[in-house]
Amino acid sequence: MAKHMKNLAEFLKNYSCHSHISNDLAIRSCRCLDGLPEAFCSDLVYIALVSDLPDSLPLSEAVNLLLIGDKELPRSYGMENKINWIVCDPRLVTLPKLINLTEEFFFEELTLYQYKEEMIRALDDPDAMKKMLEVTFKYVGNPLRVIDSAHNPVVSCWGEEQLDEPQWMEYKENQTFSQKYNDICNADYAFQRHMLNSPTPYIMNYPEIYKHRQRILRIRQSHMNIAFVSELEYNRPFTEFSSEILQIFTHFAGIRLCNDGHFYCSYDSPLSEIFLYVLKTQQPNPEKIRQLMKKSGLHFKKYIYLIYITDNDLFDSREKMVYICTLLNKFFIGGLTQMFEGKTVILMDSDQCTRSPLDDDRLQNFLQILSSNHLFAGVSRAFLDLSQAGHALEQAKKAFEFSRQKKGLGQLFYYEDYILEDLAETYLLQNPPVHIVEPGIHDLIEYDRLHSTALMESLTCYLEHQLDLHTASDCLHIHFNTLKYRIQKIKDITGLDLNKIDIIIRVRLSLIILKAIE
Length: 518
Hints:
The protein has four domains: 3-110, Udp-n-acetylmuramoylalanyl-d-glutamate--2,6- Diaminopimelate Ligase, Chain: A, domain 1; 123-257, GAF domain (Beta-Lactamase, 2-Layer Sandwich); 270-416, 2-Layer Sandwich (Alpha-Beta Plaits); 431-516, Orthogonal Bundle (Arc Repressor Mutant, subunit A). It is built from 19 helices and 17 strands. The chain has helices at 5-11, 75-79, 95-122, 128-140, 166-174, 179-187, 189-197, 240-257, 270-280, 286-296, 318-331, 360-372, 389-405, 419-428, 439-451, 455-464, 469-476, 480-494, 501-516, and strands spanning 3-4, 18-20, 26-27, 29-32, 44-49, 63-68, 83-88, 144-148, 153-157, 202-204, 214-221, 224-232, 303-310, 336-340, 343-350, 376-379, 412-414. A five-stranded mixed sheet has the order 2-7-6-5-4. Strands 9-8-12-11-10 form a five-stranded antiparallel sheet, sandwiched between helices.
């Protein structure tokens, strides 16, 4: 940010300055006026006593003077438009002190230049946001943190010491603001207006919950809020200089984050607030959920479903992400669509507990949207309470992940189809497979090995197709009677009665576990 003569006058305002600035020229440095130079440089400030000046100056271009008024300034200096002057009270400042003050004024400009150079280098760091905040902390000297527009933590920096600010420590631990903080912010209309309309920092002073003031500034890209940076007035008082540092940081942070799928425009509606609270909190408070639902006017039918939309990786640009979210929001009218962790998450409700919350026609249209935009979707089981949305999100994610493991075809996957796979995977995390695999299955594996048969393959296909001999035989490309004979042979070898539901479930789990440990 370039320095100007009016900036210098403001900087020296405590020294009873009088000024005459016809041309607010940009200035880069200062020099003592020791005799009259042959020519003046218009981007320098010349420091002198008024008594050292001649009655008039030989001018070829504009000149900037910083003076100590030890005598009255000649009248010609006030009438010449090419002369910009600032006169300080000699009772308040000496010439050496004025020189030091002016050097300090220009030092800030040099420091800002150095800071920008370090930020440019930090942009190329693999962990750029962390590095940029560390650089900023070095210049600002106060604790800093960045959160995204949905209030998820991004990065923080306050050095080695334990931070004595309970609200910041609670947020770091729980990754969510306290209810007291939310209530106070919601009641602070000046803060709400400022964050919507102003690009400048806002100083939040809430002594009832904060030990220190904090300064907050939004990070924007393409006219959207994508994140916020906060500074705590902890080690040093807030200054205009540190405010400039923060504004430069937001510029570089915006460049770094503009194509990162984790950062997006949050509309901060009551619906978004409740959805994000439930998804982010491991154990949501039921009473808080009820309060937020009442505030938002949100009501669900008997059953709720969660749909997880992904492109198999983070969206490659925020523009695509916002486009997809907007498209799906229009398609799922009556549902709740939200970006979360760089993905799209949708809540839908239904009067009936079915595999899919969409009827046939809408399901086909949804599949077309997924296919044409190269997207995939996982669908949770039906659940009854919004507080279970976090678990439902895990189910929807697992539906997609299990489909990838099995090389499933299509764009849409249901957790209903992978419940046994999830049970088996969870079991294997803490138990050896020998305790759950049916002993008779090992006999079948050995029989296949000795006789070069494919009875295990036939059994797996038979169970995957719900004991439907016709469908399974078509899948195996064998005759119906051939498969019927093989199933009887399997019963004889294993001693398992495949007409009993509990045995069928145990065998199915056994096959899934054996597949998982291959």
